[in-house]
Write a structure and sequence with these properties.
287 residues; alpha/beta; Rossmann fold; five-stranded antiparallel β-sheet; elongated
Length: 287
């Protein structure tokens, strides 16, 4: 099945930073989480995918087409939410609805009004009076209301309280239920991705270290905690990442149950997405 979004060997160089040969794909009906530490290249990747910055090399196709081949039609099918609001803050949500109605042929004023009400957004107050969380909800409402088939989201739940984050995540899950819609979501809130993502792509220092099924990561991966002597006994080809802490070693392995059977005298804990990211960033790794 052809993916909704396919990125091959995407590269972009700046002074002191290089995004290098990034590859990822977004299957139909899936949510892909893009994770990495600050400055890893997540936002640069999203901007290059959307042609907001000129990439040095690589290809990006939406439904098999380059964005530049038919930008007006393809942009109708792509909803975007950035980390920062992109509307003039002297506007009101009602005015933004009128502007979007002229910009998108598929604009749905009824859905926009329904989302604004559900998000408790006052339609006639200027955006500059909104909290960061309210601004984020406004951007999400606008992105969803022109019926896109793909959402590209940069930190969409940042600044929201836990209750509203849960509501937004449910909206995203509903969006992909028909298997024709997909989401690429950059986020530093790993618990959100653990709830809704199907795949996790980890980018570090401008390179993709892995792109895995989320369930494989959180149910299959584990962390061995052991002494220095025990560390030497672990097979090197089983070690994905490792680091020395104050009193013990931490070793990331891909099959925690196999490690529990093999290394019965060592502690093998479950691994969260945060644990995996931390070990790759702070420790050494085999990639």
């Amino acid at each position: 099945m052809e993916p909704i979004l396919l990125v091959k060997n995407l590269s972009k160089a700046y002074d002191g930073f290089r995004l290098e040969d990034v590859c990822l794909e977004i299957p139909k009906g899936s949510i892909v989480g893009l994770i990495g530490e600050n400055g890893a290249g997540k936002s640069t990747t999203l901007n290059a995918i959307l042609d907001l910055i000129k990439r040095d090399s690589g290809t990006v196709t939406f439904w098999g087409e380059e964005l530049s081949a038919n930008p007006h039609r393809l942009k109708e099918d792509i909803g975007v939410v950035f980390d920062d609001i992109n509307f003039y803050e002297t506007l009101t949500p009602a005015q933004i609805g009128k502007i979007c109605a002229k910009a998108y042929r598929q604009w749905d004023p009824g859905q926009y009004a329904e989302l604004a009400e559900g998000f408790r957004l006052p339609l006639h107050k200027e955006i500059k009076t909104f909290s960061k969380g309210m601004k984020r909800k406004l951007c999400i409402a606008a992105a969803l209301s022109h019926h896109p088939r793909l959402l590209i989201l940069d930190e969409p739940t940042s600044g929201l309280d836990p209750v509203m984050r849960e509501d937004i995540l449910e909206v995203f899950l509903d969006f992909v239920q028909d298997d024709e819609h997909s989401i690429l979501m950059s986020s530093h809130i790993s618990t959100d991705l653990e709830k809704i993502a199907d795949y996790i792509t980890f980018i570090h220092q401008g390179k993709v270290l892995f792109s895995k099924n989320k369930d494989q990561l959180i149910y299959g991966y584990g962390i061995i905690r052991c002494t220095s002597a025990q560390f030497e006994a672990i097979a090197k080809d089983e070690m994905l990442a490792w680091r020395k802490c104050d009193y013990q070693w931490e070793v990331l392995v891909a099959d925690k149950e196999a490690s529990r059977r093999k290394y019965r005298d060592m502690v093998v804990d479950n691994a969260t997405i945060d644990d995996i990211l931390l070990l790759y960033v702070k420790g050494e790794h085999s990639n």
